[in-house]
Amino acid sequence: MQQVVIVGRKRDNKAIISALQDAGVLHIVPISSGPLSTGALTGPEAEARKTAERLLARAESTLSELGAYRTSTSNTPSRESFASIIEDAAAPAGNVARRLNELNSDIDAALTFGEVVRTLANLAGVLDRSRRIALLPFTAREDDDLKALDAVLSDQQSGNLAGRYALETRKVNTGKTEVYAGLLAVLREDRDKARAALGKARLGELRLPGRFDGMPLSDAAAEMERLSREGKETRGALEEERRRLAEANGPTLFAVRDALADEVAVYDVQSLGARGKYSLALEGYVPTDRVPDLKAALDKFGTAVSYEMHDVDVLHDERVPVQLKNNSYVKPFEMVLGMLNLPRYGTFDPTWVIALFFPFFFGYIIADIAFGLMFLAAGMWFLGKARRGEGWDLSFFGTYVQPDALRSLGFITNMMAAWSIVWGLLTGEFLGTLFEHLHIFYINDGRHSGLIPIVWPRIETEFANTALLFALAFGILQVLWGWAIRVKLSLDHGDRHHLWEALGMLGGLVGLIMLAFVSSAGKNLGAATNFGNPLVLVMYAGFLVFVVGVIVSKVWLMVVELMSQGGAIVSYARLFAVGLVSAQLAKLSTDLGWSIFQAGAANNIVFGILAAILGAAIALALHALALALTLIGHILQPLRLHFVEFLNPTGYHNETSPKYTPFRRLSPAGSKK
Questions:
Q1: In what order do the strands lie in the sheet with 165-173?
Q2: Percent helix, strand, coil in the chain (nearest 5)?
Q3: Is the CA virtual torsion 2, 7, 10, 11 positive or negative?
Q4: What does residue 442 show for φ and ψ, rounded to 5 degrees?
Q5: In a 3-state reduction of DSSP, which class is residue 185?
Q6: Which Pfam families match (predicted)?
Q7: How many other CB atoms sit within 10 Å of the CB of residue 356?
Q8: Among candidate residues 513, 541, 518, the one with its CA nearest the CA of residue 530
Q9: What is d(CA 91, CA 62) in angstroms, rounded to the nearest whole number?
Q10: Are 362 and 637 a contacting pair, CB within 8 Å?
Q11: How far is Cα 614 from Cα 267, in angstroms, rounded to an integer?
Q12: What are the phi and psi torsion angles at 181 (to 5°)?
């Protein structure tokens, strides 16, 4: 990465900034100190910026009201027509959005209060239109509330309403719970006294939301009844109208929005630079391999522009942006790393580690051919939509997955599916033990037979220790690897303090691991004094390095941290544990379905066919339920091992750098006006 300082004539500043925008390689940072002025624009430029920002906000709000997504491109119209184009689309869009919001509010009100209002309307009869009688509707949850109200109303000292009111209640089932709908009728001049009585009984007058407030109960009930019948159809018509408006205006609005965003970005860059009476200075960063593009954009100005480049200060400049560069296999997994902050520039990019181990760990947990094929089908569906330039509309989550993101998601899903199938072949699992029942896979213990022997029988008790040690081996690998990375980074940066801390932790962990091997996980601690065993010598050497690391770094809490890091290694046992639970649930589901089939087949063919259908249906339902309840955990567990157990020792979470976001044009370069 190269740091760049650019100085040009003030009268050429827009041309220079536009050239940088076309080049699309410079990450611009604000100049916050110096004799030149910085900060907000003033004068005509400030007014022009406000106008562009107002139009941009209007365009974005219109696109939001239309619920439009970019599905096609459109040529950018002339700058003079932006305002009229936006307003021509905004008026009908705003009208439809307003009507749709009002309808949704009315439908929600009808769903919430419909039954109560219908009951109250029946109780009121024609009294809700009376000029002399005031009706106060209310709801109560308990009989005791009604008794308390009746006692208050009957009390001669409570507003003198005794004998001057009528009270009727009905129990109503709202679909979620049962409540009492009540109607208190009094003379209009006693309305305030009746409201006070409701308050004393800890009840309140029912006020309907929106336009239903103040509407006679019979009219409100009739309108809510109409909404319950026609609301969904009306909403569908409005949504269809909004969709047509989005198709008609969306591409042009997106083009206008992009052009306005480019225009506002030019003003933003002006405010980031340092401005003198006759000059403008800009500072930024450019990747070394994109320097020729930057030079080509600036050299055409000749002597009107001066610039200087030099290598960035990796150790002290916290503003250096990060651009992740990975090969075609690893790049899709940058989406996974995107859940975290970016790494500090000049440190370690763990994307390739995640790309290597995350699908492997996921496959180790799932380890089922059928589930792997299901994930493969989902991944291919994602890729198919991405190839067609389509996104994934997740409106119920309020989001939309763009085609590029969907392409990465499809690739990641396919890798997860591939390892699930590979491990499924090793464990012999297809919907749990289905292929074992069909004698396609079998446990090679001399008592079973089939076509293919199971290599990794993880659900067998005798194999538990092997599967557990296999999972812990990855814990040893990744935790030690994390501290080794910390050692290298400390050496690169000349950080003696963290170097000895990392060396100490690395030595201490090696000592703990050797102690576990030598003593058979603590069963034979006496073996730790057998100096004829090379592992014992390695163990004591590791503990010696740890003690030296504690003393030199003066981080006395390393003793506690060593125990914590030992626990981090043990955390990898969750790969075995979660996978075993997944396998057992699949086994139980299939075994239940198979036992139903066998019970029916023992009678006759007809019962056998019916039992097979019933057993398959029950088994598939249980498989679907188990997968739905555990899938998120199967994904999160491998992620947690990478994000916490592996990356914590590297110091990844301690520092970060901003993302490399080059100043570039959103609209086509040829659209500049």
A1: 133-140, 178-187, 165-173
A2: 65, 10, 25
A3: negative
A4: -150, 155
A5: strand
A6: V_ATPase_I (PF01496), V_ATPase_I_N (PF18670)
A7: 14
A8: 518
A9: 9
A10: no
A11: 68
A12: -95, 125
Q: Could you give the CA distance from residue 404 to residue 408 in angstroms, rounded to a whole number?
A: 7
Q: Please check whether residue 408 is in contact with residue 417, taking contact to mean a CB–CB distance below 8 angstroms.
A: no
The pLDDT of residue 145 is 83
Nearest-CA neighbor of 182 among 122, 222, 107? Answer: 122
C-alpha–C-alpha distance, residues 230 and 628, integer Å: 35
Q: Cα–chain-centroid distance for residue 141?
A: 39
Rounded CA separation 128/130 (Å): 6
Helices (H), 461-572: 464-493, 496-518, 534-553, 558-570
Res 36: pLDDT: 59
Q: Identify the CA nearest to 648 among candidates 566, 565, 574.
A: 565
Which residues, including other chains, have CB under 8 Å from residue 457's CB and lie 6 or more apart?
427, 428, 443, 463
Long-range pairs of 51-55 with CB within 8 A, sequence gap ≥ 24: 52/260, 52/263, 52/264, 52/267, 53/264, 55/82, 55/83, 55/86, 55/260
What confidence score (pLDDT) does residue 38 get? 63
Q: What is the pLDDT of residue 673?
A: 45
User: With helix as H, strand as E and coil as C, how does 583-616 read?
Assistant: HHHHHHHHHHHHHHHHHHHCCCHHHHHHHHHHHH
pLDDT given for residue 660 in this prediction: 92
pTM of the model: 0.78
Q: Which two tokens stand for residue 460?
A: 């067998």
Query: Which residues, including other chains, have CB under 8 Å from residue 627's CB and lie 6 or more apart?
Result: 371
pLDDT at 408: 95
Looking at 35-180, list the stretches that DSSP marks H as alpha helix, in order from N- to C-terminal side: 44-66, 82-124, 143-154
Q: Which two tokens stand for residue 198?
A: 């409701």
Residue owning tokens 């480019």: 262
Q: Which two tokens stand for residue 276?
A: 């003198």
Residue type, 106: D
Tokens of 491: 């050496």
Nearby residues of 199 by Cβ (< 8 Å), 6 or more positions away: none
- Angle at CA 448, nearest 5°, toward 446 and 450? 120
CB of 144 within 8 A of CB of 249?
A: no
CB atoms within 10 A of CB 156: 9
